[in-house]
């Protein structure tokens, strides 16, 4: 597992708190200083809190426990869903339904209804009017939006990871009632004592949410025996650096051999073409000479026939004169 560094958190703006007039006095131990009317969070304590929460997650996953990610605010929806899917855990990114944890038996019934509506080849839609099928489709879409992240959750989670403890107050109340451990990002306007493992950081910055939720997802993957994306990237870099480059001499020799073979092939092709072209010239000239000699005889015979034809009618003209 790649541990977070101070520079990583600083680059994401995780140290920016809220305006001083909106602060919660119970958050005072995590405040480093005040600058330009804004509280600055002590990132050293943030790193310690992340390490403490990560060790707790490893203990939970060593006992085959399940974790629920919660982030229904606009900045956290996509990040929470992506990281939860990456580590194979459950998530809630739409509106938190009251009783999701405290009344889980009712939630399981609605999940069962959703699975029935999504089942392919069921007889539920047979012999129904168009209006009734539209109503069932609307119900299916609504239930899928509400429960798509917990559709396969068969029991209550052993831990809950929350992005904004102030925004997800109802989820924290339900988890505390059921004594489920809570890991939550808390800002300077939040009471950190209502959370078991508070992570003091800027919970409005997308980059700070991304890096903290990603670190928890990496902890879960490593505890499950998987490899995180950061570790895979570092391993690939190490492998590429360790590879030995091929010697240039061998490449040059191969290129010269290929060039010599291509030259030999070109010479062979030219010799074959020369042999084919030379014998064709002689028979063509002889045939043309014979063809030119024949038409002379025909023209002479035609001239003789024409002269004979003109000479014959003369005696006929003499005989006709004597008769007259």
The coarse silhouette is elongated
* CATH-level-2 architecture of the largest domain: 3-Layer(aba) Sandwich
Order of helices and strands: HEEEHEHEHHEHEEHHHHH
Largest sheet: 5 strands, parallel
What's the multimeric state?
Answer: single chain
Structural class given helices, strands, pairing? alpha/beta
Architecture overview:
The strands form 2 sheets. A 5-stranded parallel sheet has the order 5-4-6-7-8, with helices on both faces. Strand 6, helix 6 (169-177) and strand 7 form a beta-alpha-beta unit. The radius of gyration is 47 Å and the shape is elongated. Helix 2 (43-62) runs parallel beside helix 7 (206-223) and helix 3 (77-87) packs parallel to helix 7. It has helices at residues 6-11, 43-62, 77-87, 104-118, 130-147, 169-177, 206-223, 229-242, 248-277, 281-311, 314-323; strands at residues 16-19, 31-35, 38-41, 67-70, 90-92, 159-162, 182-186, 197-200. It folds into 2 domains: 6-101 and 156-242, Rossmann fold, CATH 3.40.50; 248-310. The N and C termini lie far apart (143 Å). The longest helix has 31 residues, at 281-311. Helices cover 56% and strands 10% of the residues. The chain has 324 residues and is of the alpha/beta class. The chain is built from 11 helices and 8 strands.
